[in-house]
Design a protein that fits this description.
By secondary structure, the protein is an alpha/beta fold. It folds into three domains: 3-238, Glutamine Phosphoribosylpyrophosphate, subunit 1, domain 1, CATH 3.60.20.10; 246-448, Glucose-6-phosphate isomerase like protein, domain 1 (Rossmann fold); 450-593, Rossmann fold (3-Layer(aba) Sandwich), CATH 3.40.50. It has 20 helices and 27 strands. An eight-stranded antiparallel sheet has the order 3-2-4-1-10-9-11-15, with helices on one face. A seven-stranded antiparallel sheet has the order 5-6-7-8-12-13-14, covered by helices on one side. Helix 14 packs antiparallel against helix 15 and helix 16 (451-461) crosses helix 20 (573-591). The structure holds 6-O-phosphono-alpha-D-glucopyranose. The site of 6-O-phosphono-alpha-D-glucopyranose has 15 residues, from helix 10.
């Protein structure tokens, strides 16, 4: 995700800010910038691309003078990565500079309100709205202006704020996005991540939601949402830099698994308005949805597995023929697609060579393409006819977890939109799905609190040489992903089968104590899958079953080991079922001493055929 750093003291701020930003590079970013008060005004320098560009532009910071400043590395969510969209954003008066991590969900309505008041905007970002809004409320008291402004913001934010009228202070505010203040000798800092300041100090305070900090050279004062002054504990950081980058988690994969509640919430809430799915800013208009006669979903690896989930959902709910096709197969299969085919292209990176080629082939044949992409400004995002972004932030572990979950979330939205517009979903049913969608982040959070149970199971089974996954319908799609996660990071041979296929070959591989992971969350076929479980237990396989809590009793009778996910709408079980499988794969790999974040022979983004 984006990175924030701020400094106030006696030294030149720019080199300290640039160093802090360099420590945040690992988080991924596509542009960077700093604002420094130079004794007369706030000077802002920004550059798209690598931090190197900003370092060159500022002559390693030597060209920007002043001892108070804020800096930022941006990962684009609203608007292309560009100089103008990079942070800091400065209000039209030039008085307020803001860096921001997070997403302001109501930025469009705030922007319209400010435009109606004559405020002129320069960028496409949600962050510029924050800078302009603070300026709009500013009447000499900057703390009050910040407080009034953040009160109007929906969504998540960590903010670093500089005001040219008050160069003796920096302000920091947060809600649902991490932010710390750090105590130096005769200076103080703000940062989104301790790594940015660990070189200078190990004494920090963690800001909580809706708190504001006024950071001066010699003091830091905290306020709650009512602007009452509060005290906060000072924490001593004893982690090394590497541990700090992972936010205290042992691996990026584990950190990213834990980010899923937030990522799913962000991704969904960007397209749910007043209890309804709203994809009106995509190509899925009513006329278009009625026009298409089939859907092809293309992707590679885990993105393809999301396509398999999507295919079941679209056929069941929107009653439209849908197929998931591996991008590498699609491109050479002389696909039958035309202007009535909707081709949905799924890619975290937006740069996977086979997926790009498949998308271009689909376009050449006249199909319309809708991309589900994580990286703003990537090739697929640029070339597709329409894009829906997953708001997962940068993913660092090679094995995808949070981007996969965000892609699933988008697919539920597409399914509801298509089904509604094709007249296949009643309003009450849509409303029930939306309610269940809104509960998903909390339910994922709940699953994460039971991770020790998966750690124990992994300790029991990590020596197995072969592990099979079975499931039917959506559970089959989840089995594909669970099996891929396990094999890619633990190097254990694993395969996933549709439950009904067992008898057609695979069952010959079941020996006493072979582990079979039965994914049995799809309510309608629960009993059928339990029959498959009986087939393998009869051959003395060990079975670990993932089921909904509502089927705990029956699943518990059939399988020696179980993990129960909270009950949810039948369409949404993939989002809950995938989490225990990710954690199981993670802990198995941990027990086997594997290089979890960088598994052998694999790459995060496969940009060659
Ligand atoms: C690689 C990654 C996978 C990913 C696949 C597709 O194999 O290791 O995690 O699912 O590429 O990548 P994309 O960026 O197109 O989603």
């Amino acid at each position: 995700m984006c990175g924030i750093v701020g400094y106030i003291g006696k030294e030149e701020a720019a080199p300290i800010l640039l160093y802090g930003l360099s420590r945040l590079e690992y988080r991924g970013y596509d542009s960077a910038g700093i604002s420094v008060y130079d004794g007369g005004e706030v000077r802002t320098v920004k550059a798209a691309g690598k931090l190197e560009n900003l370092i060159r532009l500022t002559e390693e910071g030597r060209a920007v003078h002043g001892s108070v400043g804020i800096g930022h590395t941006r990962w684009a969510t609203h608007g292309e990565p560009s100089d103008v969209n990079a942070h800091p954003h400065v209000s039209a008066s030039g008085r307020i500079a803001v860096v921001h991590n997070g997403i302001i969900e109501n930025y469009l309505s705030l922007k319209q309100m400010l435009q109606a008041e004559g405020v002129v905007f320069r960028s496409e970002t949600d962050t510029e709205v924050v800078a302009q809004l603070i300026d709009f409320y500013y009447e000499g008291d900057i703390l009050r202006a910040v407080s009034r402004a953040v009160d109007k913001l929906d969504g998540s934010y960590a903010l670093g704020i500089l005001c040219s009228d008050h160069p003796d202070m920096l302000l920091a505010a947060r809600k649902e996005s991490p932010l710390i203040v750090a105590y130096g000798e005769g200076c103080n800092y703000i940062a989104s991540d301790v790594t940015a300041v660990l070189k200078y100090t190990r004494s920090v305070s963690y800001m909580e939601d809706e708190e504001i900090a006024v950071v001066r050279e010699g003091s830091i004062t905290f306020y709650n949402e009512y602007l009452q002054q509060i005290e906060k504990p000072v924490v001593h950081i004893d982690w090394d830099v590497e541990a700090a980058e992972k936010g205290g988690y042992a691996h990026f994969m584990l950190k990213e698994i834990h980010e899923q509640p937030r990522v799913v919430k962000n991704t969904l809430s960007a397209h749910i308005r007043n209890g309804r799915v709203d994809l009106s800013d995509t190509m899925l208009t009513e006329d278009y949805c009625r026009e298409i006669d089939k859907v092809q979903i293309i992707g590679c690896g885990s993105a393809y597995h999301v396509g398999v989930v999507g295919r079941y959902l679209l056929e069941k709910y929107a009653r439209i023929p849908a197929e998931a096709v591996l991008a590498s197969e699609f491109r050479y299969s002389e696909p039958i697609v035309d202007e009535k085919t909707l081709v949905i292209v799924i890619s975290q990176s937006g740069e996977t060579a086979d997926t790009i080629a498949a998308m271009r082939e689909a376009k050449r044949l006249g199909a319309k393409t809708l991309a589900i992409v994580n990286v703003v400004g990537s090739t697929i995002a640029k070339e597709a006819d329409s894009v829906i972004y997953t708001l997962a932030g940068p993913e660092i572990a090679v094995a995808t977890t949070k981007a996969y979950s965000a892609q699933l979330a988008i697919f539920y939205l597409i399914t509801v939109a298509l089904a509604e517009k094709r007249g296949k979903l009643k309003e009450a049913e849509s409303a029930a799905i939306v309610r269940a969608l809104e509960a998903l982040p909390g339910q994922i959070e709940e699953i994460l609190t039971h991770k020790e149970a998966l750690q124990q199971l992994a300790s029991k089974y990590f020596n197995n040489s072969s592990i099979f996954f079975i499931g039917r319908n959506l559970d089959y799609a989840i089995s594909l992903e669970g099996s891929l996660k396990l094999k890619e990071i633990s190097y254990i041979h694993s395969e996933a089968y549709a439950g009904g296929e067992l008898k057609h070959g695979t069952i010959s591989l079941i020996e006493p104590e072979t582990l079979v992971i039965a994914v049995a969350t799809y309510e309608q076929l629960f009993d059928k899958l339990m029959s498959n479980v009986k087939e393998v237990t009869a051959r003395k396989a060990s079975v670990f079953c993932v089921a909904q809590a509502r089927n705990a009793e029956d699943a518990g009778k059939a399988a020696a080991d179980c993990f129960f996910i909270p009950d949810t709408h039948e369409m949404l079980t993939p989002s809950l079922a995938c989490v225990p499988l990710q954690l199981f794969a993670y802990y198995v790999a941990l027990n086997r001493g594997c290089d979890i974040d960088k598994p052998r022979n694999l790459a995060k983004s496969v940009t060659v055929e």
